[in-house]
Amino acid sequence: MWCGRSSSGRTTSSKTRIVGIVLVHNEDVFVERAIRNVARFCDRIHGVDHLSTDGTWEVLRSLADEYDHLEVRRVRHAGESHRIVEPYAGSPTWVFGVDGDELYDPGRLDDFRAELLAGSYDHAFKVASNVLNCVELDAARKTARGYLSPPSRSITKLYNFAALESWRGDGAERLHGGTPVFRAGWDERSVDNIGERTSWDETPLRCLHMCFVRRSSLDSGPTNRPILEETTLHDRSWRGAVKRKLRRRPIPAESTWKREKYMRGDVVAVDTEPFFA
Q1: Are strands 102-104 and 206-209 parallel, antiparallel or unpaired?
Q2: Which in 31, 54, 102, 177 has the greatest CB count within 10 A?
């Protein structure tokens, strides 16, 4: 299902373009901010709603009316989102995967866009960078507390599709799974992690990852919401079907996998004003 758009979008004189793909499921608390923050950075954005039952779809439709370079659709299987980006393989395109709980610094993205289009990262297949995995957001004080990447795992999903011949297959979701076929000079190890050489204050690419706070209006209780691992939601195998049935049973307050990957090092506090300007 597609929704129409109005108003002007981005234009660029560069042959290289940046395409965003936002896959969401019940994330109406932050999804509007997540898309607005990358709207200037991307030349085109695909918004994909996976069976949301809160207000996420309504938010996407409203934003599609505002941004003419945003196209939105609903899908029954999260894996359909990868087929949207498959045709970009082999073209001078950077594909930027953004989740509904990932808030990038839009001011930093403006400068980073110029660097990306100028070819400063063409040596890499994937670019990763600095992230704060948030356990607390204080809107009044404009601060967030959480675990930095590094040492935690970076969740940035920015891929150079010029490095590919193709990327097909039945993956769990966009940019996960499938079979990437690389052109000469690149492979899966062609990763440039900006966070390994720059701090949170200096990096040109940084993100507030709201993975441990309430992300849907359907959630209630404390700020730290119960979270299932994404593989439970998107796995299309028989194992995934069994896991989805088990969701009716009581689940742990936090995903063990997320804790291991995203809660490394010390808890730090950062200024959130640039992300909510």
Answers
A1: antiparallel
A2: 31
Q: Which residues pair with 126 in a beta bridge?
A: 159, 191
- What confidence score (pLDDT) does residue 255 get? 64
Q: Are 221 and 31 in contact (CB under 8 A)?
A: no
Higher pLDDT, 100 or 219: 100
CB-hemisphere CA count at 13 Å for 146?
Answer: 32
E strands along the chain, which residues?
17-24, 44-50, 70-75, 93-99, 102-104, 126-128, 130-138, 143-149, 157-160, 164-168, 179-182, 191-193, 206-209, 267-271
**If DSSP codes are grouped into helix, strand and coil, which group holds residue 21?**
strand
Tell me the mean pLDDT in the region 47-57: 96
In the chain, DSSP finds a helix count (H) and a strand count (E) of: 7, 14
Tokens coding 48: 């994909």
CB atoms within 10 A of CB 62: 13
The whole-number average pLDDT for the span 109-122 is 97
What DSSP designation does 107 have?
H
What 3-state class would DSSP assign to 150?
coil
Q: Which of 6-15, 56-65, 109-118 has the lowest mean pLDDT?
A: 6-15
Q: What integer pLDDT is reported at residue 141 of this predicted model?
A: 92
